[in-house]
Structure of Formimidoyltransferase-cyclodeaminase:
Amino acid sequence: MKSKIVECVPNFSEGQNQEVINAISEAIRSTEGVSLLDVDPGPSTNRTVYTFVGNPDAVIEGALNAARVAYKLIDMSKHKGEHPRLGALDVCPFIPVQGVEMEECIFCARKFAEKLSVELKVPVYLYGYASDQEYRKTVPQIRVGEYEGILEK
């Protein structure tokens, strides 16, 4: 039986401050059962895309660890960048790689969202296959109004 591998590709709203980028990288890297594959900062967009893989539970924990660090270190009231964004953690897709179907990735997204919203008391919007609401299926639908318009959602 093949081991289960899920890929997670969170986008964080920081692409300039190397200390913050490194702290988020370390939060992922230090999570047991995950391998950080890539860190791609974009200074003009002021966001960094991280790519890591592991078993489903480890990937959820890695995403939570990264989000906890971002919550502490990224001040969205001061964030500026060329790319639309909704929060310190803008998107966090879970992608099936090996021995996993999309249904399990949907479960990962929902479990991650629930844990994140309860622990950090932040709004979380599911999109794509994980969303039950048609008007929140695409990222552009969710990003309408961006971070500054979050209270109107």
